[in-house]
Task: inverse folding
């Protein structure tokens, strides 16, 4: 058997040489790691970020979810009902509306997850023993957020409200609560997950595509030729982004098509609006990826920056956990992520049939994020030219 490459323990000089070379390589790697500050930051920041997000921001049993109320009569009993609902810790009444149209618009736009309607003559009907109905409408596009809150409604009549009308528990409940789970009445998780996967997959692929664009030119040695050409930074950026917009649009078409054909996800709204806003989302992610490519010194750093951005996008966007159930500071961070706004858009168009008027906030947010990323990218690339 060949002994080539084996360490001879009986020869002290070879043994010493082995450890000396190993130590030299070890020192060299530490020096390289110290120079590669981005990689070192990833080693420290990724576990810290995971711990902070999972420990503080993520909540699988969301509480204090925003709700609107339509009071067609202002009575003591109606106020007691609303207070009892807030005491369950699932509902937080943020809006009081004056019409059914405004009530529906808030649910369509995603500004509230629940709507409570107390009809006119409600208290009088209760005192006559007519058992009137109280309507609770829920946005069930996220079944996790809606199901726990709706299941708590049964406690309201039997506990806090019973003492407003009776001493002790009544023989029959004084009124009926009718809960309507809108947009996803069967609470099917695939109707929530599949549209979310459209945005998640596009975020990952679009970031990686363009994050490598400038660093690839540097590592291949073609950046000098690019810089010698009479071309402006904006033209370079658009030339690199536009082809991937087409690739991303093809990806989105395939994913949505599979979702409709295989998983039965409906498209209740405008297909044209979905295509336009998907293109806007793709362009936003490509702009952010291009910005990363101007910040990184090599392809490894560009990939690391992309993963650093992708992790909070998954956790804070509302894809895995209910967005409105997170703490306020986590929601503020989530609003800075394109995926947060696109998830609202794609779910609202596909499941609710929402229009551009209902989605103004998220559309403007995507445009703002895209322009900001493009501005930073052009500024960074201009510094490279100088």
Result:
């Amino acid at each position: 058997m060949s002994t080539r490459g084996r360490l001879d323990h009986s020869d002290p000089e070879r043994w010493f040489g082995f450890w000396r070379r190993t130590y030299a390589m070890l020192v060299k790697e530490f020096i390289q790691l110290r120079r590669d500050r981005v990689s070192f930051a990833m080693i420290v920041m990724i576990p810290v970020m995971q711990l902070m997000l999972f420990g503080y921001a993520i909540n699988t049993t969301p509480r204090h979810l925003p709700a609107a109320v339509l009071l067609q009569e202002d009575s003591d009993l109606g106020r007691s009902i609303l207070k009892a609902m807030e005491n369950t810790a699932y509902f937080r009444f943020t809006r009081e509306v004056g019409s059914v149209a405004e009530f529906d618009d808030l649910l369509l736009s995603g500004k509230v997850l629940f709507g409570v309607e107390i009809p006119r003559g409600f208290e009088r009907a209760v005192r006559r023993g007519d058992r009137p109905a109280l309507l609770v409408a829920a946005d069930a596009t996220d079944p996790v957020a809606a199901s726990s809150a709706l299941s708590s409604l049964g406690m309201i009549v039997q506990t806090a409200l019973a003492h407003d009308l009776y001493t002790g528990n009544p023989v029959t409940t004084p009124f009926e609560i009718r809960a309507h789970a809108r947009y996803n009445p069967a609470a099917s998780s695939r109707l929530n997950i599949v549209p979310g996967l459209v945005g998640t997959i596009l975020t990952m692929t679009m970031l990686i595509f363009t994050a490598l664009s400038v660093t690839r030119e540097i590592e291949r040695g073609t950046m000098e030729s690019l810089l010698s050409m009479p071309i402006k930074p904006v033209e370079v950026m658009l030339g690199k982004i536009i082809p991937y917009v087409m690739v991303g649009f093809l990806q989105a078409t395939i994913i949505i098509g599979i979702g409709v054909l295989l998983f039965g996800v409906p498209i209740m709204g405008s297909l044209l609006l979905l295509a336009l806003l998907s293109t806007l989302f793709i362009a936003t992610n490509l702009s952010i990826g291009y910005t990363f490519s101007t910040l990184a010194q090599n392809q490894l750093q560009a990939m690391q920056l992309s993963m650093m951005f992708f992790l909070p996008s998954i956790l804070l966007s509302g894809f895995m956990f209910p967005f409105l159930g997170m703490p306020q500071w986590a929601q503020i961070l989530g609003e800075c992520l394109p995926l947060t706004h696109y998830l609202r858009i794609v779910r609202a168009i596909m499941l609710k049939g929402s229009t551009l008027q209902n989605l103004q906030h998220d559309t403007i947010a995507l445009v703002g994020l895209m322009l900001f990323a493009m501005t930073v990218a052009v500024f960074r690339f201009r510094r490279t030219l100088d």
Notes: The chain has 16 helices and five strands.
